Amino acid sequence: MTHRLREARAADAGAIGALLHDAFGGAAEAALVAALRRETGAVVAELVEEDVAGHVLFTWAPIGDVPVAALAPLAVAAPARRQGLGAALVRAGLASCADAGAAAVLVLGDPAYYARFGFRRAEAVTGAPWCGHPAFQALSLRAGWSVPSGVVRYPRAFGT
């Protein structure tokens, strides 16, 4: 199935907020996305499906002086799930991060889901409360290069 993906626009904010509220059962994720958008220089890529049936956000989260991105959150509307939209958003977002110069991407999510993209447990990254959790994973975007070890610096909106 072909998905029509595009960069999110300011006019999408309400629909994205509603999608996140429905997908996560509350306002916390929508508030996080809004705060990240307001934080100067935080967003690497924000993509939606044309009708905002899906959304993904990547923000800068460097490790030392290495440009690293963080994927959070990913959401797909209930009627559009299990049709490849989430995977399409992740793949397009990873490509956008690579184009922006990111060396790696971090995510806190279901290891069974994110393994299909090549994510593996990020055991050598510290600095956030979720570091060390089995669902905290990383993916190198550079061939022959491993994910850096060290302290990650998430945008302020994450509260770390």
Automatic annotation (TrEMBL):
<dbReference type="Pfam" id="PF00583">
    <property type="entry name" value="Acetyltransf_1"/>
</dbReference>
<protein>
    <submittedName>
        <fullName>GNAT family N-acetyltransferase</fullName>
    </submittedName>
</protein>
<dbReference type="InterPro" id="IPR000182">
    <property type="entry name" value="GNAT_dom"/>
</dbReference>
<feature type="domain" description="N-acetyltransferase">
    <location>
        <begin position="3"/>
        <end position="148"/>
    </location>
</feature>
<dbReference type="InterPro" id="IPR016181">
    <property type="entry name" value="Acyl_CoA_acyltransferase"/>
</dbReference>
